[in-house]
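Protein modeling request. Please complete all fields; requests missing the sequence field cannot be processed.
Requester role: graduate student
Desired output: 3D structure, C-alpha cell encoding
Chains: 1
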Amino acid sequence: MTKVYPNATAASSGSEGVKLCIGGGDPAVLTVWKKSLLFNCSGFTVFDGKGNLVFRVDNYVAGNKGEIVLMDASGKPLLTIRRKRLSLGDNWLVYDGETAANPRFQMRKHLNLLSSKSLARVSGGSSSSMRKAMYEIEGSYSQRCCAVYDERRRCVAEIKRKEAVAGVALGVDVFRLIVQPEMDTPVAMALVILLDQMFR
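Delivered output (200 residues):
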C-alpha cells in the first residue's frame, strides 16, 4: 500500500509545522488526505513535505454539520467555519479560533448558469469589505484541479492531484495543496474545506 504520510511520529511536534508553512520564500507543498485520524469521524488530515502533521479536521458524524473547526497538529483551533444562515446560495463565514464574532472572511459558491471557470468567490468578513473580492477560485474541485487567484490575478494557491512515486494515482481523497508565500496556509486549507462542502 502506498504511504500517504511518511512521518507518523511527527504528529507530537505540536503546531511547529504551521509556523514553518506560513510566509518565507518557497511555496508550502502540503499533502491533504480526506480522512480523519479519529474513528467514526469525517474530516481532513494534512501533512507537510517532511511528513509532519500540520492540520486536522475531525467532524463527528452526528455532530453539527453547519460548523467545522480547522485545528493545528496539537488540536488548537485555528479557524472556525460556519454556514451563513438565511442566505441565498451556498455562503460560509470563517472566524479566527473558535470565536463567533467578526468573521475574517466569507466564501460564496459561484452561481452562474452560463459556463464559467469560477467555482467560488472569497470576500472580506466585515460588512464594509463584503463586496470586495479577496480571492477567486477557478477550476474543478471534483477533479482536484483548482487555482486560487488574489485580487491582482496572481495564483496564490493550487489544488492538484497527487501521484505516488511509482506513478500510481492515489485517487481524489489524497491531493496536494501548494500555497505561495503571499497567502496564509491555514486560510488556503479553509478554502479547501469550503470547496469540499460546496461541491460534494
